[in-house]
């Protein structure tokens, strides 16, 4: 289950991301790659892609693995900052 405020902070660099589930990531990757596959080569140059699940498994700044992130309260995050998605690490069953 994602953290209460839905935010994760990288323990290595301090960047904050919003937590997403594996199902959300898989749906987003599939949707974007479907779109990307239909672009012309010139249009593809304007995008970073195709997307992969692996890009959501690491901090977008320092590339630390997502399991090193910890929940953080929204009140600790400055207003106006850009938040990027990070796969919420599920505990082992
Ligand atoms: Zn980081």
How is the topology of this model organized?
Blueprint: E1 7-10, E2 16-20, H1 22-37, H2 41-44, E3 69-71, E4 84-87
Parallel strand pairs: 2-4
Antiparallel strand pairs: 1-2, 1-3
The structure holds zinc ion (ZN).
Zinc ion binds next to loops.
Report low-confidence residues grouped into runs of 5 or more.
Answer: none
> How would you sum up the global shape?
elongated
Whole-number total of structural domains: 1
Number of helices: 2
The count of DSSP E runs of length 2 or more, i.e. the number of strands, is 4
As a whole number of angstroms, the C-alpha radius of gyration is: 15 Å
Gap between N and C termini: 13 Å
The main β sheet shows up as: 4 strands, mixed
Strand order of the largest sheet: 3-1-2-4
Whole-number average pLDDT? 91
What percentage of residues falls in helices of 4 or more residues? Answer: 10-25%
Strand content: 15-25%
Bound molecules: zinc ion
Alpha-beta classification: alpha+beta
Q: What series of H and E elements makes up the topology?
A: EEHHEE
